[in-house]
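Readers of this paper often ask what the protein records in our data store actually look like. Such a record has a labelled line for the sequence and another for the backbone structure tokens. Nothing more is needed to write down the fold, since each code stands for a local backbone conformation. The record that follows is passed on verbatim for readers who wish to inspect the format.
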Amino acid sequence: MTEHARNIVVGVSTIIALLGLTALLMLFGELDALFKDQYAVSVDLNSAGGLRSGSRVELNGVPIGVVETIRLQPKPRTPVEAVALIDSQVAIPAHAEPQILAPLIGGSAILRFEA
């Protein structure tokens, strides 16, 4: 095999590997944030209760997004701010109250809005 042919085979193999990796990432939902329209919602909480980046966000039990960041803020009554990315086709009602649901065994906490 000549050097030119070997370089072509290596290039084609690399392209196929990258396409396969992209397909797997899309299959497992890791690239959803790039293709979905989402908007950010800031929620002030009195405790994080096990929330972390990537935790699910639900509205009346239906998944509607993920928690993007959690940070401390200098407010005495609500010292935790959670920023959630919500799917653009979902509107959270103004009277919805946020709750944190923590599982008994394993898993991540869920930020749930109850309307």
In short: Strands lie at 38-45, 56-59, 62-72, 80-87, 97-101, 110-114.
